Amino acid sequence: MQPEQWLTQVAKRFDKAATTYTQFNKTQHVFAQRLYQRAYVSSLGHCLDLGCGPGSETQFLLEHCHEYLGVDPAKGMLAQASKLFPQVAYKQGSAECIPAENAQFDTVFANFSLQWCPDINTVANELFRVIRSGGQVLMNTLLTGTFAELVDVYSALDDKQHTIAYRTQAEVEAKFRQAGFEVTSEVVVHTDYFKQFESLLRHIKGVGASQTPQQHRGLMTPTRWQKLKANYEQKRTSKGLPLTWKVLEATLIKDKMY
Asked: pTM above the 0.85 mark?
């Protein structure tokens, strides 16, 4: 699948999740709070909320910046955001092609949006372009190992890819350093727990991350469903059914020499 087709499929998936996202984004909100703590100054200045979704973190960011722009590829997400914050500027766009001028922002805030980008090299260069000298990118992204339980139980059914292909920490950091950023980071492993398998899948679907946008994964027949459910049930702990997120949290600084 070509990058443009991939991004179109991702946007469609998040369009469908636009009205449900805020019901299920507790984990995303927790990590957004953590992301702000990585800022080296309390004021985010002119801030780009990249992958702003339905305005989930708009209010929080407005409290810490003097100018705000929200960008998202999904029209449905932007429509929801505009309903909540009609006075705020939102634009349709992607991390590969940010609708902004060179050196426009003091801060880019990218909370769980970059793992959906097929060309991380283009993303790194584009972020470097829109950040001012001395500016910062506060970003997190999902790494290989995310949703490991789901990947494992699907592997017992077939050899198809049922989640997006997450990158390694080394791969992500190398691309941003090559673009010119100074990178400081840490990896956080976070696990959510669910009482029922259905609620776990509903949670993933509710935030638009149900499966890879690629097609031809096979039909989910009743027999396949019961086997998938039974396999996941074997992973139950005293806390419930686990769903693991492996998160790279990073601060990218554009040196003042640029």
From this structure: yes
